[in-house]
Structures are given as C-alpha cells and as structure tokens.
Amino acid sequence: MIEELRSRFGEALLSAEQVGRELRVSVAAAALPEVAAFAKEHGFHYPADITAWDAGDELRVVYRLVDLASGEHLVITVPAPRSGARLPSLVPIFGGADWPEREIYDLFGVRFDGHPDLRRILLTDDWEGHPLLK
Amino acid sequence: MTRTNLFVDVVLSALSIVKGLMVTLTNALRPRVTRNHPFQKTPIPEVWRGRLVHLRGEDGRLRCTACLACQKACPSHAIPTIQGDDKKGKEKRAQVYVWDASRCLFCGLCVEACPFDAIRLTREYSIVGEDRADLIFDLNRLLGPAEGETA
Amino acid sequence: MTTGLTPTEHITLNMGPQHPSTHGVLRLELELEGEVIVACRPIIGYLHRGIEKMAEARTYPQVLPYTDRLDYLSSSSNNMAYVQAVEKLLGLEVPERAKYLRVISLELNRIASHLVFLATFANDLGATTVFLYGMRERELIMDLFSMWAGARLTQSWIRIGGVGADIPDGFVDQALAFCRLMPKRLDEYDRILTGNRIFRARTEGVGILPPELGVNYGASGPTLRGSGVEFDVRRAEPYEVYGDLDFEVVTRPTCDCMGRYLVRMQEMRQSVRILEQCLKRLPEGEVRAKVPRVIRPPEGEAYGRVESPRGEFACYVVSDGSPRPARVRFRAPSFYHLSVLPRMLQGWKVGDAVAILGSIDIVLGEVDR
Ligand code: SF4
Ligand code: SF4
Asked: Do A121 and C44 touch (CB under 8 A)?
C-alpha cells in the first residue's frame, strides 16, 4: 500500500509509516480528496474518525479510515495553518465526514471547501472564536 | 388483503395481546420491588461515594495535615481552600478545609490521593441545601466520627 | 381541503429540544408536507460542556471522571476507551484479573444500557408496561455497581492500570443470579413486546438504513448490525479478554427499526453469556498495575477503541510528553448516527420519526460532549 501511494502521489505524500495495524500517512491538503478516493477504492469504506488537534505551530487534521474486512486502519494526517485554513471537503466521498468537518470548523476554524452546509454545530451560531485552538 | 388473510391477522393479533396480558398478569403477582421513598430507606452500600467527611485519629484530632495532595488531585477544584496551623510536618493539622459539594464529581480521587487516610466519601447521598452557600462545607460540617465509632 | 393547505405547501415543525422522545435535549427541525417528512435538520449542542477542552487542562487521571459524563448510560465503555488510549501510550500491561473485571463491568453496562433502550423505545411506541420492566431489571445491575464501585452511573471504575477496587464478597453470586434471571425476563419481553401486532406494525420495514449508507456515514454498533453488517469492535479488534471469550456478533438483515431492536435484544443474551464465562473464569491476583503518581506518557498519539452499547466509541489521545494531554477527542457513535438520521427519516410520517429516532438509541451526552 505504501509503495502504491508513493508511486501515485509522489511529492504530495509527505510521510508514511506502518505502526501495527495502522498505516500512518501525511499528505498535502491538495491531494487529500484523491488519496481518500484511492483509499475508498482499496476497501477503506468506513470513516471511523475525523478530527484535528493544535500542534502549536500548525493544525493537524486527522482522518482515520478503516477497512472493515481486514481491520486495517489508514490514518491520514493533513497539516494546515492555524488560522484561515482551507481544506477540501470529503463529504462527496464519505457522508460520515459531514458532521465531523462541521465540528472541526466550529472548534478549530478550518473551512472545508465543497462542504454542503458548513455551519457551527456544537456552539451557537453567534459564538466568537474557535475554542480548541490553544 | 383477502378475507381469510384478514381473519388470520385479526386472530393472530388478538393472540399476541393475550400472550402479553399473561406476562403482565404474572408480573402483577410478583412481590413488589419499589420502595416508598423517603419513608422507607434504601440500603446504601458501605463503599458509596457520597458526602465527604474528615476522619479523626485515636487522639480525637483530625488526621488531615493540610498537605494539599487532595486539592491537587481533584479534577474540578471542589476543594478550593485548605489551611493548616503553624506546626510542621506530621504535627501540622488542618484549620480550614472547604469542600464544595456543588462542584464535586464524587470521583474519589481525593480520597485515593490522601497519604494520611484523612478523608472518606460516605454513604450520605442526599446533599441538599436552599442555596449554593449551603453546599459549601467548612471543616465544622465535614467532621466525621472518631476512630471506633460507626458512621 | 378545508385547512387551506395545498399539498405542496411545506410547514416546519420543531421536535424538541424539550420533547420526551428526543431522550435529552435534541432539536429536530422537520420539514413536512402534510404528515410526511421531506427534510430534517438535527440541531445539537444543547448539552455541550466542552469536555474535550477541559481535558487539556487536566492531568491524565483527572480526565477520567469527565468521561463518565459522555455516554452516561454506559460510563464503563467511555472509561475504557480513554484508559485504553492512555495505556497504549504508556505501554502499560494490566493484570489478568483486572481485564476480566473490566469486561464484567462493560457487559453489565451494556445490558443496563440496552434495557434503557428497551424501556424508552417501548414507551415511545406506547407500551408503558415494558418501560417499568426494563427499569426494574436495570436496577439489579445498578445494585451490583453500587456495591462494587459506590456509584450507579458515574462509576469511573475502570482506571488507568486496572480497576478502582476488587469486587466485594458476594458480588459473583449476585451477578450469577442476575445472569440466571435475565434470560427468563428477556423471554417475557419477547412475549409482551416483540410479537405484539402494534409494535410490529410500527417497526417492521420502518426507517430503512441501507448497509452501504450506514458504513459511509460511519454508523456502527447495533444500528449498523441491524443492517446486516457484521462489525463489532469486540471481534474486529479484541481488547481486554474478548479474544478468549465465546460470543456471537448478532446481525439482522432487515435494515429497519425492528432489526435494530432485535439485535439489541439478542445482544443482551450474548452479554449474559460473556458475563457467565467471565464470572466463572475470574482469575485471582492484583486488580491494578503499578502506575507512577504523575502520569507522563511519551510523545505520541493513540486511538482507544471499544464497542459501547451504541457502537464504536473511541478516544484519540495526543501526548506532548507533559502530564496533561495535548488533545483528547471522543468519537461518539451517536454523533454519527444522528448525522445519518435525516436520510433515514425522509419519506416517513411524523409518528414514525419517534420510532426511528428511538431505534438508533442516541445519548446526547456523547453527541454534544
Ligand atoms: S470526589 Fe473528586 S471531585 Fe469531589 S472533591 Fe474528591 S477529587 Fe474532587
Ligand atoms: S485530606 Fe489528606 S490529602 Fe487532603 S490535605 Fe488533608 S492530609 Fe492532605
């Protein structure tokens, strides 16, 4: 899988390592939809978790896709700037990305291009700021 | 739906209701499991995590040495103030100790953290007051039984 | 029509946030054409307490009591997911007895939670009697938890390194007695509810969730298994001692409310089976590993994954090497189930909304966090 990803995405694949059952890759934002679609074709149908965290100098948005048949995890980390970040939305590929992306927008301020309904979800609409930023 | 089908359906539905009624009947004949609270007391197990108390040693003095370990362990700042007298080390005893029941999660981390086994969470579960201030307990209201007495 | 409404006129109906069948504070904005739902917008966040933010300001052991307050009907599974992630970070091995005790606690909680589901689901559909029965049996589990953990719901008894304390005397006997009683009571529920004509009419074929849609939306647990997908974290990634235990992953192919209901009913029987095995095999020994006073996991990230009564409950913990986690994220199954709800409601009547919402068994505590 790593080899295939590498040959296909080249530069866009920032890093890749296998940790137990998890294949952890880091990709550039622009390549995200293609990597996700590629993963889905290869059996990773289940969007287990989509979240983000503030690493201090940048945000990391983490997509965990699981292959229910083999039990393998594919963890895609996408670095993003701490303010004004824009990422392509995965909603067209995974319906399960809808609410988590809204949550990341709500709590971290990352905008997802192509999201059908990007509103705050946990906080009220008139809330100022994004509380999970450090 | 044809006539016979309708007939079968009605009979089966009626039977399912009769079957259900048999269950309610058996249950109606079982001894009752509810209690008439608050007139009838519910037995509360010894390990219950309810109201906090301070224990006293054999000499009748508080065990708490105001070491602040419980305060540091508490996740929700439910123990805002602890002050000791001016003695040192193990001789030191708490003079002020505030426990805020309205913030407490009853997790028991404070009890686990205490190196002197000075506090307990007790079986008292009904902690009520008329305003918030009633739920803030000072040392006078936190005194538990001395060694040997039962709660 | 005398109402003056033409069939094309849509009205918006708010269900909740204070509505008994929303099981907490959830608002569903339903767009109706007559009585038929054409669109639904779930509005959540009423119970948001910022637990993920609070966790950043707490030490590792201090986060634990907060996890109880997520899925409050099954606090052990929340504790387990968090503890599992932290233990992965620490590389901590837990004593064998503690692993069994954890499974006992998890399965008791699963039965308790499914009983609440049964009770409220039946109540929503008009069978009030079953509500009382479900709550009655659940009380037996609550008694077991109070004598062991000293709390009914917010136990925080699965701790980093093991469990809070060993079980008291008499616990095993009382739990085994419960295991003997429960299947008989389940038969009773089946007799009064499962076969009932009205109940069947309201659940069979209602609220279809196609398996592909469910997987695509990240649905899990009984909600997904009711659509025939055999996915159970206990089987897919066995934690604690689930790998050594004998149990079935229950599925139903019907994709409807009835399917999801039947999966939960059967799961309770499987949980009883697991409990019996654990109680009989329970090894002697310690219940808590040695854990340093200040927990300072090495830098890294870990994903703790458990099968909660509602589905895959997971906790993603990122450590920066300090005594406080850099990020704690809870992946709540109900969150995903609610996001697919609008798709399940489309085309059904308002009355069915109650059944469909009930059948995905949400807990708002974990949705809003
Ligand atoms: S029980 Fe928990 S929340 Fe309450 S005072 Fe003790 S440590 Fe604090
Ligand atoms: S109760 Fe225990 S931990 Fe808290 S200050 Fe007193 S001696 Fe220290």
From this structure: yes
Q: Structural domain of residue B57, as residue ranges?
A: 52-146
Enumerate the β-bridge partners of residue C163.
C158
Q: Specify burial of residue C20 (Cβ count, 10 A radius: 0-12, 13-18, 19+).
A: exposed
Q: Shortest CB distance from B20 goes to which of C61, C66, C192?
A: C192
Counted domains in chain B: 1
CATH number of this structure's domain C11-368, picked from the four choices 1.10.645.10, 3.40.30.10, 1.20.1600.10, 3.30.230.10? 1.10.645.10
Query: pTM of the full predicted structure?
Result: 0.88
Give the closest residue (by CA) to ligand 1 atom 8. Answer: B74
**Domain ranges in chain C?**
11-368
pLDDT tens column, C265-304: 999 999 999 999 999 888 988 888 888 888 888 888 899 9
Catalogue all structural domains in chain A, each as residue range(s) with its CATH number. Answer: 2-85 (3.30.460.80)
- Whole-number average pLDDT of chain B: 83
AA letter at C62: Q
In angstroms, what separates the C-alpha of A6 from chain C's closest C-alpha? 24
Question: Nearest CA to CA, how far is B116 from chain C (Å)?
Answer: 16
**ipTM greater than 0.90, yes or no?**
no
Place of tokens 């979800």: A121
Q: What is the DSSP string of C206-258?
A: -S---HHHHHHTT--HHHHHTTT----HHHHS--TTGGGS-------SS-SHH
CB A96 to CB C339 under 8 A?
A: yes
Report which of B53, B51, B83 is spatially closest to residue B143, judged by C-alpha positions.
Answer: B53
Range among A26-30, A127-131, B37-41, C312-316 rated most confident? C312-316
The yes-or-no verdict on residue B147 having pLDDT over 90 is: no
Question: What sections of B30-108 are H helices per DSSP?
Answer: 69-73
Segment B35-62 shows an average pLDDT of: 85
B65 Cβ closer than 6 Å to some ligand 2 atom: yes
Q: Encode pLDDT of A46-70 as tens digits.
A: 998 999 988 888 889 999 999 888 8
Which chain B residues are closer than 8 Å to C68 by Cβ? 105
Q: What pLDDT was estimated at residue B19? A: 84
Measured CB to CB, residues of chain B less than 8 Å from chain C are 9, 12-13, 16-17, 19-20, 22-24, 26-27, 33, 44-45, 47-49, 73-76, 105-109, 121
